[in-house]
Amino acid sequence: MSIKVDKEKCTGCETCVDTCPFGAITMVEGKADIGDQCNLCGACQEVCEVGAISIEAIEKEEVQDKEAYKGIWVYGEYRKGRIAPVVYELLGEGRRLAHKLNVDVSCILLGYELKDKTRDLIGYGADKVYLVDDAILKDFRDDVYGDVLTDLIEKHKPEIFLAGATSIGRSLIPKVATHLNTGLTADCTDFDIDLEKRLLLQTRPAFGGNIMATIVCPDRRPQMATVRPKVMKKMAFDENREGEIIKVTLDSINIKARTRFIESVQQVSDAPNLSEADVIVSGGRGLKDSKNFGLLQELATLLNGAVGASRGAVDAGWIPYFHQVGQTGKTVCPKLYIACGISGAVQHLVGMQSSEVIVAINTDPHARIFDVATFGIVRDLFEVVPALTKRIKQAIGCE
Amino acid sequence: MDIIVCIKQVPDTGQVKIDPHTHTLIREGVESIINPYDRYAIEEGVRIKERYGGKVTAISMGPPQAKEALKEAISCGVDEAVLLCDRAFAGADTLATTYTLAKGIEQIGRFDLIICGKQTIDGDTAQVGPGVAERLDIPYVSYVRKIEFIGNRCARVERMMDDGYDILEMDLPALITVTKEINEPRLPSLKGEVRAASIEIPMYTAKDLGIDINKIGLAGSATEVIKIFPPPKKGQYERIEGTLDEQVETLLKKLKELGIINIPL
Amino acid sequence: MDYFLTDKQKMIKNLARRIAEEKIKPKRAELDEKEEFPWELMDILAKSDLFGLIIPTEYGGFGGGCFENCLAVEELGRACIGVATTFAASGLGAYPILFYGTEEQKRKYLPEIASGRKLAAFALTESSAGSDAAGIQTQATSSGDVYILNGTKQWITNGGEAEVYSVIAMTDRTRGARGASAFIVEKGDPGFSFGRKEKKMGIRCSSTRELIFDNCRIPKDRIIGREGMGFIIAMKTFDEARPGIGALSVGLAQGALDEAVRFAKERVQFGKPIISFQAIQHMLADMATLTEAARALVYAVARYIDTRPRDFSKVSAMAKLFPSDVAMKVTTDAVQILGGHGYMRDYPVEKMMRDAKILQIYEGTNQIQRNIIGQALNKEYGKKF
Predict the structure, then answer these.
(1) pLDDT attached to residue A319
(2) CA separation for the pair A282, A293 (Å, rounded)
(3) Which of A65, A125, C46, C160 sits at 20 to 30 Å (Cα–Cα) from A276?
(4) Among the options C33, C58, C363, C380, which is catalytic?
(5) Segments forming the whole domain that contains residue C60
(6) How far B105 CA lies from chain A's nearest CA (Å)?
């Protein structure tokens, strides 16, 4: 344990007690005492006005030759003939970072009988595209994909590696990072570069979205991160951009395949996928009954959007779980989120607060949902939603 | 079938509120609970044991209070529990955590399957499961929503994807991380509670595990948190007033101006 | 208030409360609306070992007594007494076997009831024999190595859902109440069938049916105790079980009080929460006082019963009579405090009020309880003076 409180300096002001996100600090005989829950995050050190708290810097051995690592890699998640939309966002962000570091952005695609997407990838920001096209990569498996990716990273040594925080990215990349013995930051929402130290500053929501943390990986390479879809901006498509295409063969790679793919089952739903929808109309306990979700559905359909729900509405059994937005449901980031009769529990806000525009409709002007709203209407949703629907129908001429 | 379930004790983030003035977390009255996703892991482990026989061992890394979480696991049907507890473990990122957990699992010994929740609600990284598997050099499948069958040498599972699910087979021993869809966790039983109340949970320190002190805790972490700050607060929202019709009209107009909707008004 | 529970008792209470909060509350309105038997919840109670609460450990139970049962039933009743009644009725069906069964009968039936694999039920009431238990018409005729049962039992809780039934039938009509005997009848026995599920005012998720015996043949060894002991077995079962109804009542009253106080704190009229008005405060104060008094009585009687006294009919009747009247009053007042909201099905108190009425009726109407208490007084004072 390397955190210390200088009892001489500590004035007992208790600022650190309130600040500690892990509740590890208590007052013992009027002085701060740091307990076992301490995660050494440094929040207390930062707020202590008298500098009584110190965290000993631990001498870490320089494990790698950092200089050997150059360039930014983006994992080109590819499945069923389609590049995941987040890849283009990552290329856009990758370019922005690459510009600061004065390096190249490479995209790496794994699969079998890959459809030619290189034009798109280059046009959206890739300088190099690595193509690994092999029958063994026909279907996604963590072990096979992981071994291939690990090998290529070891050979080509990028300094930064980004992947989408999708269900594939969040599963595959931890294996690669662990094997490479390097750091991985999950679900990043913002990046910057510390040019002096040539470090990637990775910001992510932590502790259920209640706080933001900026994380660095100082001594090991590559610096790896997964990134939430729909947060980063892709760049405008430039059809004149040029790039290099590098085909990679698997001959020299040692692959340990201990999982076998059997089949893939598509679950079709008529409504747009909640995580990909541009518009979400969401309902909470204020809906009062399952049948009232029909009102939201009608509005959502008009806006070509999907219907979401708070945990309260799902727990009440009004709507199935896969509509749930929030910490224990889906994290969404649409262009427009209309929250109807949702009070705005932290657990819900975490899942939707990064939406571009949030409209809150609630009878209670003090509801937490208004804290994250762009626009608010303090009125009964049973008045507002039908009126909105009616007005839109009228405008698009289907009334 | 010998099963190891990895669990973590976390603050109930659902209860956490933020002080509107200081923007810090109000921790008072926030309970420590078993990470909700880990409850599904516990239940799945116990169900497999009930069906095929064997033993379920729960393992956790955390402060001494984390024993409570392990005791609850026992009251829900887990047979044995182990706590990895040492101040030297503190401040670990997922890289250091997976090393410590893997060492603890090696200490437990033989197993056929390790089950983890898909992620924790305080860290939300989903990295520990795959990381532990890599450390132990065993195959894994994440986001498992169903175990179709489990035999002596292999298991067939359904893995959630963003657009449906994949069916995969894996050699055992292996690790899976599970989602909410996999089962409905039971509550404790009276007999389980009685057992939990009397059982002594062994605690292993770094020394007990004989591990490389440079690979654990803050020292063994590849990442460092350099700043913690409250989420950017959106500016004051714009309250739209007027009659119902006026409110609707204004809202739609504003959304259109922002290019959010494209409707001829 | 601290009732000085042991660690084990606290464990039982906490576990039952957790089940009530997490599992029963979210389901109760739907179960009531659909009149659906709560199998899923019975399964949860079974997995938590609660069905074994009153069964001795040697038969796979938890070895608790009347008091432990009351603690669990109270907490379950706080969420829904339809579910809690279904649970408690299985215990009622088990008591005759537990108190008077042979070793073989105990070994055969109690472990299955304790694990919740099988539900039990108790069958006494008939169309012409309710409060007057001696008017039983169902006949059990001895014939070779079987008994043949004929007759119909009415309003049997868990009827049709339970696997094991403790049935009171006449073996010798000439002897009146002393001619009654108790039998174990299993679902599936030849000649044993069920009537339709009754439509009830309250506790609508619980199952209430007729049991129809049409030349129902059961082996001789299914008799509980000896011929002629039926009435004693029934009375002893009720004596043991009545505080459980009291506990259900306390739970229900507490549940209604919880709702009423919560509502009164939130509901604003004339610019203030209505709890700040004395008219409301006094109502709540009476509700709380009655509920606590009922709880204290139930706990005291249940603890007394667990000391295995010889005769406890009087206090057992008191522990049913008072709490069930309290539950009726408190739930009615809760509806009053919620006003128009209380009358709507969107809020739980209207269901609580409908549910409460049965507590004054089943397992001996409150009039019969008063008879029992009155008769006991007569006997007691007869001795003393």
Answers:
(1) 86
(2) 9
(3) A125
(4) C363
(5) 7-118
(6) 17
- DSSP character for A324? B
pLDDT tens profile A273-320: 787 788 999 999 999 888 899 999 999 999 989 999 998 888 777 888
The token pair that represents C241 in the structure block: 């079980």
**What CA–CA distance (Å, rounded) separates B251 from B249?**
6
Whether residue A322 contacts residue A308, with contact meaning beta carbons closer than 8 Å, is answered with no
Where do the domains of chain B lie?
Answer: 2-215, 234-265
CA distance B19 to chain C (A): 23
CA angle A366, A369, C271 (to 5 degrees): 20
Displacement of CA B128 from its chain's centroid (Å): 8
Among C7, C22, C49, beta carbon nearest to B189: C49
* CATH number of the domain that residue C69 is part of: 1.10.540.10
The reply to whether C363 belongs to the active site is yes
C-alpha span between C369 and C377 (Å, rounded): 12
Q: Tell which residue, C29, C41, C32, C123, has the closest CA to residue C362.
A: C123
* C22 → chain A, closest CA residue: A315
Count chain A–chain C contacts defined by CB atoms under 8 A.
5
Q: Which of C75, C91, C118 is the last residue of a domain?
A: C118
Based on its alpha-carbon atoms, the radius of gyration of chain A, rounded to whole angstroms, reads 24
Side-chain half-sphere of C266: how many Cα atoms within 13 Å?
A: 9
DSSP state letter for C23: I
Q: Is residue A270 part of a domain?
A: no
Number of domains in chain A: 3
DSSP per-residue letters across A74-141: EE--EETTEE-HHHHHHHHHHHHHHHHHT--EEEEEEESS----HHHHHHTT-SEEEEEE-GGGSS--
Q: How far apart are CA C334 and CA C353, in angstroms?
A: 8
Mark whether A283 and A327 lie in a shared domain: yes
Residues with Cβ within 8 Å of residue B205, at least 6 apart in sequence: B85, B86, B88
Chain B residues touching residue C18 (CB < 8 angstroms):
187-188
Class for the domain spanning B2-215 = alpha beta
Find the Cα–Cα–Cα–Cα dihedral B252, B256, B262, B263, rounded to 10°.
Answer: 40
Q: Under DSSP, is residue B226 helix (H, G, I), strand (E, B) or coil? A: strand
pLDDT tens per residue across span C11-31: 999 999 999 999 999 899 999
Residue A138: give the domain boundaries.
66-248
CB contacts of C346 in chain A (<8 Å) are 288
pLDDT value at position A252?
79
What tens digit of pLDDT does each residue of C30-42 get?
999 999 999 999 9
**Contact between chains at A288 and C346 (C-beta distance less than 8 A):** yes
Tokens 């698997």 belong to residue: A250
Of C278, C290, C365, C289, whose CA–CA distance to C323 is shortest? C290
CA distance linking residue A79 with residue A396, whole number of Å: 37
- A17: tokens are 């007690």
C176 and C250 in a common domain: no
Q: How many CB atoms neighbour CB C25 within 10 A?
A: 15
Q: Which residue of B has its CA nearest to C17?
A: B187
